[in-house]
Amino acid sequence: MSLIDVDHWVVMLSLILIILCFYFTLTFFHYLKLGDERMIKQSKLAAVICLALSFLIPVINSL
Is the pLDDT of residue 39 over 60? Predict the structure, then answer.
């Protein structure tokens, strides 16, 4: 597996994580409307983790 292939996988993983972040953000607003506190906390945490990983994985790969 060459370096170019690894870079493509990192970009794809980063894009998937950004899409997941958007999904969890939408579910956060949905559960906020319903008033489900447990799901609000879970979806907010998942969105933050996905966004952080989508930014950190390319940075770590470039080191």
Answer: yes
